[in-house]
Write a structure and sequence with these properties.
The protein has a 3-stranded parallel sheet. The radius of gyration is 31 Å and the shape is rod-shaped. It is built from 5 helices and 3 strands. The protein has one domain (25-171). By secondary structure, the chain is mainly alpha-helical. Helices cover 76% and strands 6% of the residues.
């Protein structure tokens, strides 16, 4: 009985050592720069162009509004000596309201641009994530690590592989 139990323990330890050797020889983790893969997508250039056009439209409107405010302010400064008190106060109030509206417009424009950027990037991120899932399944990887912002200062090359070039190649199609 002891002999049988001893043989069984030797056999199990041999299988365990074999399993460890197999898992070390095959990479279990992938890594890439997510931002680099995203920027390499052909759709990203279109995204950038659309965002540039949208930013330019907002900048032109901000400039127009600022010019309008400056013209009204200059007219106010030129006529303030001649205005009766009631008109002077009315114009001051108008200028303050206009300035507040301009500030609110700029803030809303920034929020709109951020939202537009997030919405435009969403399908690109989905496609990149699907591509990474395909690569992970192909190589039997447990996970793929994003190396952006120096999030992983060391990645063991025995246990991992870079999937960046393959991802970029698949995304270029």
């Amino acid at each position: 009985m002891k002999r049988l139990l001893f043989s069984l323990m030797v056999l199990l330890s041999a299988l365990h050592a074999s399993a460890q050797t197999d898992s070390i020889s095959q990479p279990r983790y992938g890594y890439l720069s997510y931002d680099s893969a995203l920027v390499a997508m052909p759709e990203y250039a279109i995204f950038q162009q659309n965002m540039r056009q949208l930013r330019n439209a907002y900048e032109q409107e901000v400039k127009r509004v600022e010019d309008e405010f400056n013209q009204k302010y200059e007219a106010f400064l030129e006529g303030q000596r001649d205005f009766p008190r009631t008109i002077l106060l009315k114009r001051q109030t108008e200028l303050q309201q206009l300035m507040q509206q301009n500030i609110e417009f700029k803030a809303q424009g920034r929020r709109d641009l951020q939202q537009a950027e997030a919405e435009a990037l969403k399908p690109l991120r989905v496609r990149l994530n699907e591509t990474l899932a395909t690569i992970a399944r192909k190589y039997g990887l447990e996970l793929i690590v994003n190396t952006d912002a120096n999030a992983c200062p060391f990645i063991d090359p025995v246990l991992s592989i870079s999937v960046e070039e393959e991802a970029k190649a698949l995304l270029a199609k």
